[in-house]
């Protein structure tokens, strides 16, 4: 499916160098029910799967923790799309019921859950994550466009994985991971309901400067375990993972990691060189407009982290204070 291609060009021969933003419109019509960035129409999907959704709702409403206003057709749709082809409505129902119980046990449906913004830094596990960053730009939860999905930008070379593994328990790692994922989900759910298109999140990971010695096996094990668990509870949330500017040894590490990650995550991973390859940079445009792309990915955005990232630089001290447990 062809999409608009966005290119940033530098006017190096001008007296005063500047930048222009060029959008080349697609000449190929998108399939019915899709919008320009490839998202599917929720109303069309709900209509298509109306019978299956009704059956799914009847099954999950048996849970004592089922809430009709929370676990509605849009919420259930993500489970149906992920599991129906593998085992029908019954498999989707088991997954949805598991998520309902998990959300209840962890208080994930509480409106005051500290899953985003400066208030999250009051959670000891989250504060410890941010104290493991060598630079604030190492981790940014980003909403570049209010009508599109969330973007997680990570620069692993700026993260002290050894410190994180040593200073955090396995449970703290799980807490921090699920709170950040809940923030991503809530943002995408809001956009889905406002725009009418199924909205997902994308991860842009800049691997430039990352050394093998900087990785920590225990941290990677926990991260893979948490990712696998959360993928079950947040189906159809992850749209893509772009590993950018990877060092040569990273391919070997990836071959090892892919064996412990769920297949539905592995199939969404792609290696790109967006800073030097304009065609590969254009593949990011489905998820983020060129003007919102940071310089490390070949974009023009010099201010980083961006003003509307999950933790606003001016709202918190740095490093984040670690609250007492």
Determine the N-to-C terminus distance: 50 Å
By DSSP, the count of extended strands is 7
What percent of the residues sit in helical stretches (DSSP H or I)? 25-40%
CATH topology of the largest domain: Phosphatidylinositol Transfer Protein Sec14p
Largest sheet geometry: 5 strands, mixed
Q: Which tags fit this structure?
A:
globular, two-stranded antiparallel ribbon, 325 residues, alpha/beta, 10 helices, disordered N terminus, 2 domains, Phosphatidylinositol Transfer Protein Sec14p, 5-stranded mixed β-sheet, disordered C terminus, single chain
How would you characterize the overall build of this protein?
- 39% of the residues lie in helices and 11% in strands.
- The chain has 325 residues and is α/β, with parallel strands linked by helices.
- It folds into 2 domains: 43-105, no CATH class; 122-315, Phosphatidylinositol Transfer Protein Sec14p (3-Layer(aba) Sandwich), CATH 3.40.525.
- It has a 5-stranded mixed β-sheet with strand order 3-4-5-6-7. Strands 1-2 form a two-stranded antiparallel ribbon.
- A hairpin with an 8-residue loop joins strand 1 and strand 2.
- Helix 4 (124-131) crosses helix 6 and helix 6 (170-195) packs parallel to helix 7.
- The model is unreliable at 1-28 and 313-325 (pLDDT under 50).
Short summary of the structure?
39% of the residues lie in helices and 11% in strands. It has 325 residues and is of the alpha/beta class. The strands form 2 sheets. It has a 5-stranded mixed beta sheet. Strands 1-2 form a two-stranded antiparallel sheet.
